[in-house]
Design goal:
Layout: H1 14-18, H2 22-28, E1 36-39, E2 46-52, E3 57-63, E4 66-67, E5 71-75, H3 80-94, E6 102-106, E7 111-115, E8 121-122, H4 123-129, H5 136-150, H6 158-168, H7 172-181, H8 200-207, H9 210-225, E9 229-231, E10 240-242, E11 247-249, E12 256-258, H10 260-277, H11 288-316, H12 333-364, H13 370-373, H14 378-397, H15 405-416
The protein binds 5-S-methyl-5-thio-alpha-D-ribofuranose (SR1) and magnesium ion.
Magnesium ion (MG) binds at residues 43, 234, 239, 251.
Length: 428
């Protein structure tokens, strides 16, 4: 199959095409006529199938040569599957057990056969239903600290890291999607944008906000220029599968060498959006406990990330940056701690900027979140979205002057209750 020209899989062709591959047959069964195949992809880009046989089940993910959400008018290279495969192997090494196991990869067919996670569901869906997952703060805080620290010059041998940086530098088209959809399009009337009509006045205010537009481009500048570590690149709540006992991160096709703060900011932004959307899912009962849970998850995720990053700094800082020959080896452990403080402070400040723009793009840009989209009453949806837009603006513009998540979460509560005034315009 490796030499073959690309052919998109279908429910009918998948079993005959893949059952001859030993690594796949071993996990599903060798008799294709006994396979049950269904397409379950609901993402923006790819095909995703579940194949079940007499032995077991696998997931087959295949890239399409275009953006599924838009159609073939927007071509997108198949090589994103190559980057996803290589990111998954690195993440498994750096944070064992945090991603699905990969059984087979075919570069020409842009397909990855991997572990079928069951009874896992997408984290975003769980949060919309009001489910409180007990492990996500710990698991995702550790995942981010371990993958981001261990992929950086704090830890890696510099030659190996530079080779890896060169490998992922070719993921240009997916970076281009983020550069446009996240950092630029939300801030003007770009052709693919859409928003809930009742938001018109808030949207006009944000698009006229000079400080915000400058800050969004500063974040884009960082995203494009700060090749610090191998980031997941699309770490939102739709890229995480969960049960009460297990958390797995999926879909790293946007992986590239970028700022440590990018993954952290994107994830926290998606929790804040989940928080603001709860009001729209309250028909089945009060979501007060869910709101409190989400704000706690945000604080705990950052605390776990910080603690694990600090532990790795003290025990695995073997790369070229801040070498121990300058600090610990000279009896100056305090110097290393001082440097750690600076590094964490920069991650904190940048993380808030990335979180702010992520909230904006999910409400004003092309790719929206089910958290808000599933709210049918557009007036109610707009109320939820407006609160998220205002918090996003506040943390992006004021990120250098914000001391704690407690402070931000207090503002989030005020906004959610409609008690925080405008929080846009020139109030920075
Ligand atoms: C056209 S792709 C839109 C979005 O889907 C992916 O999940 C990324 O978040 C991207 O920005
Ligand atoms: Mg994805």
């Amino acid at each position: 199959m490796k030499e073959d020209a690309f052919q998109a899989l279908t429910v009918e062709t998948l079993a005959p095409r893949l059952s001859a591959i030993p690594a796949v047959a071993e996990r599903v069964g060798a008799a294709p006529e006994r396979w049950k195949v269904r397409e379950v992809g609901d993402g923006n880009l790819n095909l995703v199938f579940i194949a079940e046989g007499e032995v077991g089940s696998v997931v087959v993910k295949q890239a399409l040569p275009y953006v599924r959400l838009v159609g073939d008018s927007w071509p997108l290279p198949l090589k994103r599957s190559f980057f996803e495969y290589h990111a998954l192997t690195r993440q498994e090494k750096r944070a064992p057990g945090s991603v699905p196991a990969v059984f087979f990869f075919d570069e020409a067919q842009a397909l990855i056969v991997m572990e079928y996670l069951s009874p896992h569901i997408i984290l975003r869906r769980a949060l919309i239903k009001g489910e409180r997952l007990p492990r996500i703060a710990e698991d995702l805080g550790l995942f981010m600290a371990r993958t981001l620290f261990r992929g950086s010059d704090f830890h890696m041998e510099t030659r190996e890291r530079k080779a890896d940086l060169a490998l992922f530098a070719d993921n240009t088209e997916l970076c281009d999607i983020t550069e446009n959809l996240v950092f630029t399009d939300p801030y003007f009337d770009a052709p693919m944008n859409r928003h809930t009509p009742e938001l018109d006045p808030v949207v006009a205010e944000l698009r006229a906000d000079r400080d915000l537009k400058v800050e969004a481009q500063r974040m884009k500048h960082l995203f494009a220029a700060k090749a610090e570590t191998l980031v997941h690149g699309d770490l939102h709540t739709g890229s995480v599968m969960v049960t009460a006992k297990d958390t797995r991160v999926i879909d790293p096709e946007f992986a590239f060498y970028g700022p440590i703060a990018f993954d952290v900011g994107m994830l926290l932004a998606n929790y804040w959006m989940a928080f603001f959307s709860q009001k729209g899912h309250e028909a089945g009962g009060s979501r007060d406990a869910m709101r409190a849970y989400l704000l706690q998850v945000i604080e705990d995720t950052w605390a776990v990330f910080r603690a694990e990053f600090s532990r790795l700094w003290r025990t695995e800082r073997a790369g070229m940056l801040y070498p121990s020959c300058l600090y610990e080896d000279q009896g100056d452990a305090l110097g290393a701690e001082q440097a750690l403080g600076h590094v964490l402070h920069e991650i904190w400040t940048d993380m808030l900027g990335f979180a702010g723009v992520e909230m904006h793009r999910r409400i004003l840009g092309l790719a929206h979140n089910a958290d808000f989209e599933d709210i049918e009453d557009t007036g109610l949806r707009a109320t939820c979205e407006a609160a998220a837009l205002k918090l996003g603006r506040h943390i992006a513009v004021n990120r250098r002057h914000i001391a704690s998540l407690t402070e931000i979460n207090h503002l989030a509560q005020l906004l959610d209750e409609g008690r925080a005034g405008a929080l846009t315009g020139r109030q920075s």
